[in-house]
Amino acid sequence: MSGHIGTIVAIATATVPQQGSVSIVRLSGADSLAIARRLFVAPGQQIWESHRILYGFIRHPVTHATLDEALLLIMQAPRSYTREDVVEFHCHGGMIVVQQVVQLCVEQGARLAQPGEFTLRAFLNGRLDLTQAESIADLVGARSPQAAQFALASLQGKLAEPIRQLRTTCLDILAEVEARIDFEEDLPPLDEATIQTQLAQVLKTTEQILQTADQGELIRTGLKVAIVGRPNVGKSSLLNAWSRSDRAIVTDLPGTTRDVVESNLVVGGIPIQVLDTAGIRETEDTVEQIGVERSRRAAQNADLVLLTIDAATGWTEADQTIYEQVNQRPLILVLNKTDLLPQPASLSPLPIPATVTLPTVATAAALNQGIDALEQAILTQVKANQVQSANLDFVINQRQAAALGTAKVALQQVQETIANQLPLDFWTIDLRTAIQALSEILGEDVTESVLDRIFSRFCIGK
């Protein structure tokens, strides 16, 4: 990894123009402390030593102009995030000061860090394995408490530990097999039954971990839910009641919503992007036509569609037309405005075609009723399509899932090889494939291009 050398610098905090009380500029590398000494003046008898915070001023080394009153944190190797010398300038917030400090660091010999390079250095220097490094990006970008919890579990090694155990078991089996190939006459016969038992357990654990892949992707990226229906069925009222806000304008006039209105929620630990769409109908209004077309596209791109109808009016030809347009997507039928029914609790007389068999929820959005039932119906839909494991407190990402899938196929091939009573040499081929795939998850056998792809999604200062 020759490109990841030298001393690097980056802004390590989110910087918003004219906002924020503190911004941090981070340096990592052999020259970090020397650069800090040239730029930072600590008055009095303050001691420059590791894991001590100094108070002082950042000054231009030539003009001696003061840029900021700041704090300096020193973390010398190996007791730092990257296991290199690290210093941090804790400056006042805002864009100008921190940009000037970064520029001074560059003038003193540092270079701008690449995305994720601090974490990459932590990985290359053995402080983190690759699962832990990836979990840092997940933790920073977590969109729900559950996503943060899973990321923290991986950061603490709860994913790496079982993967490492699987790899060790495969290595032990490989050693036993290769020993029989090389020293068959000097060793007792191979305990084939024990090896088959070990392989079965490794394969079972591999499959259990693989089951978390879809759920992990859902928790990271979230669910896109579109509320669709004809005009004036209460879609905007439903969004407002659900999000507990007035994101959408609500009137008695059909066609009020002309564009897609978005709200972000968390349901059962899953981030949900809710899209309130314009009522779908034929119209001569050019602006409304654009809104209707956007509604259709939103429904087509949604992970789940809430087909909303007016319970007081019942199923209409317009509802049937919309249903036929969106029934390629997972659907929940929302019977809204149940508060306008003579008997709100009795929904069975509604003339819904027998061919429309959808999960159904009754709501009265204007009275904030039925929202809990709606959320439960959504979670039921998610669970129906996602395999979850109650025995694991972490989830894997798609890269890890691909490697585990390779390991699974290789392990199954070993079992088939044993069943077909093929020579021991054939066992070793697939065992090595499984071991390599498990090593890739941990980062023990991974290419530079894979690392570049992983760390390119990190923020610059991490």
From TrEMBL:
Binding site for K(+): 232, 251, 253, 256
Domain TrmE-type G: 222-383
Stated name of the protein: tRNA modification GTPase MnmE
Summary of the function given for this chain in its UniProt record: Exhibits a very high intrinsic GTPase hydrolysis rate. Involved in the addition of a carboxymethylaminomethyl (cmnm) group at the wobble position (U34) of certain tRNAs, forming tRNA-cmnm(5)s(2)U34.
GO CC annotations, alphabetized: cytosol
Keyword list, A-Z: Cytoplasm, GTP-binding, Hydrolase, Magnesium, Metal-binding, Nucleotide-binding, Potassium, tRNA processing
UniProt record, GO biological process: tRNA methylation; tRNA wobble uridine modification
Gene: mnmE
Cofactor(s) the protein needs: K(+)
The organism of origin for this protein: Oscillatoriales cyanobacterium SpSt-418
Class of this enzyme: hydrolase
Similarity-based family: Belongs to the TRAFAC class TrmE-Era-EngA-EngB-Septin-like GTPase superfamily. TrmE GTPase family.
Positions annotated to bind GTP: 232-237, 251-257, 276-279
